[in-house]
Design goal:
Largest sheet: 7 strands, mixed
CATH superfamily of the largest domain: NAD(P)-binding Rossmann-like Domain
Radius of gyration: 21 Å
Bound molecules: NADPH dihydro-nicotinamide-adenine-dinucleotide phosphate
Strand order of the largest sheet: 9-8-7-6-10-11-12
Number of strands: 12
Shape: globular
Low-confidence stretches: none
Helix content: 40-55%
């Protein structure tokens, strides 16, 4: 199939999608990235085309929208909106996080649920794709306010989830504290102790290694990409963005593997520490972010030599590796070019869709090691899948067991990307293409087998 006919098929497909889903820019972006690399494959496989698989995969199975009413500490009644997007359960129960952030919209959750379907398929585990969340802003709220919000949200959400139906987890703004409140309310309402959420505390059904899994997995994937070229992340300078769950454990693993981490950030700006972050400095970041919920500027006040750059992102700092771990569209096309100009060798996406589409094109064209989110950050949901297995078996595996399985899953995902993304001419790997095709096939084949459902 020629490139030009594939391009025109993509444009035609996207025109229909945009018409059906107006004003959903993030969803359009995520689908376009997939459609661009999948279309030539689909055009070569008439069975997928005939069965309208891509059209069906871009339409969620269902979306639930509901009001969450709660009371703040001053006794005021507050109301937020929440969603659960159950995108595709062809290969297992819906699985995907809940995000609490004022920027949450249906478009954001549809892009995340769509991506999740491919990501979960790549893990090799029986998990469908879903995502949910609310425009609730946990920042500045007391523990009591967050608890009342979570309890109220679960009072409605419990109607739609279950261990064989839909199993949510954490995401931006939803960590151990929120999952605990949500699980406590589910248990109370249903009188059932069952694995309906992942990311739970270790004393009530959580898995060892879940907290670390996304960040560690992102670095394992990066190392797998380097090894493909006979190299390693050891000794490389690394830029990290974000300072939440994914960022912190990416930093931890990168340091452990001998890299020098120069930056991290939050929505106020970024820290550049030319001396590199060591174990003591990382312990400070963990306390700052996980316990005190403070701002990154405090790091520059504590450690001399470190600079705080207000309102900026770290992508102009020279380095060999970038691990974007904050949020979507945090690397613009211009920033991608700056990274390339400074000699970036690998980008492993810890966050979901952190790179704008023209940035993705620039990385792929330059043939750097570019690990797209659906492959590089799949470690989190993979260990969530392992948490579900442990809950079903009513036992728990130790840290080494879980970490060993995580490493194996990331290795397998990397191998699938190589299988479907290798360039026969020069041996380079297009990981975007590889991840999209490999993730698609498993879901598509299940949909074909089911007939018109
Ligand atoms: P956290 O809430 O723990 O941390 C998010 C971090 O990103 C914070 O430092 C936050 O800064 C920053 N951030 C969030 N929104 C923005 C924004 N609009 N602009 C600038 N900075 C922002 O979330 P996670 O670490 O869990 O998630 C980070 C990313 O990783 C997301 O894209 C998520 O979807 C993805 N991901 C997470 C997984 C997980 O297991 N948790 C699994 C797979 C992917 P501030 O505190 O100032 O808001």
């Amino acid at each position: 199939m020629s490139t030009s006919s594939s391009n025109s098929e993509v444009e035609q497909f996207m025109a229909g999608l945009v018409k059906r889903n107006p004003h959903e820019d993030e969803f359009h972006q995520a689908v376009r990235e997939v459609a661009e690399s999948l279309m030539p494959f689909i055009l070569d496989h008439s069975e997928y085309r005939k069965a309208q698989i891509l059209e069906r995969m871009t339409e969620p199975d269902r979306v639930v929208i509901f009001r969450v009413t709660w009371m703040d500490d001053a006794g005021n009644i507050r109301a937020n909106r929440a969603w659960r997007v159950q995108f595709n359960n062809s290969i297992g129960p819906y699985k995907g996080g809940l995000r609490f952030h004022p920027s949450v919209t249906l478009s954001i959750l549809k892009f995340l649920g769509f991506e999740q379907t491919f990501k979960n398929s790549l893990t090799g585990l029986p998990m469908g794709g879903g995502k949910g969340g609310s425009n609730f802003n946990p920042k500045g709220k007391s523990d009591g306010e967050v608890m009342r919000f979570c309890h109220s949200l679960m009072t409605e959400l419990q109607r739609f989830i279950g261990e064989d139906t839909d199993v949510p987890a954490g995401d931006i703004g939803v960590g151990a504290r929120e999952i605990s409140y949500l699980f406590g309310q589910y248990k109370r309402l249903k009188n059932r102790f069952t694995g309906i959420l992942t990311g739970k505390g270790l004393s009530f059904g959580g898995s060892c290694g879940r907290r670390e899994a996304t960040g560690y997995g992102c670095v394992y994937f990066c190392e797998n990409m380097f090894q493909q070229r006979g190299e390693s992340i050891a000794g490389k300078r690394v830029l990290v963005s974000g300072s939440g769950n994914v960022a912190i454990y990416s930093i931890e693993k990168a340091i452990e593997m001998g890299a020098k981490v120069l930056t991290f950030s939050d929505s106020s700006g970024f820290i550049h520490d030319p001396d590199g972050i060591d174990a003591e400095k990382l312990a400070f970041i963990k306390d700052l972010k996980e316990v005190r919920r403070g701002r990154v500027i405090e790091y520059a006040e504590k450690f001399k030599g470190a600079e705080f750059h207000e309102g900026k992102r770290p992508w102009h700092v020279p380095a060999e590796v970038a691990l974007p771990c904050a949020t979507q569209n945090e690397i613009s096309g211009e920033e991608a070019r700056a990274l390339l100009d400074n000699g970036i060798q690998a980008v492993s996406e810890g966050a979901n869709m952190p790179t704008e589409l023209n940035g993705v094109h620039a990385f792929v064209k330059a043939k750097i090691l570019f690990g797209p989110a659906k492959a590089a950050n799949a470690g989190g949901v993979a260990v969530s899948g392992l948490e579900q297995s442990q809950n079903a078996l009513r036992l728990s595996w130790d840290h080494d067991e879980v970490d060993g399985r995580l490493k194996g899953i990331m290795r397998d995902i990397h191998a699938k990307c190589v299988e479907y993304g290798s360039d026969a001419d020069d041996g380079s790997v297009n990981y975007v293409k590889g991840a999209n095709i490999a993730g698609f096939i498993k879901v598509a084949d299940a949909m074909l087998a089911y007939g018109a459902v």
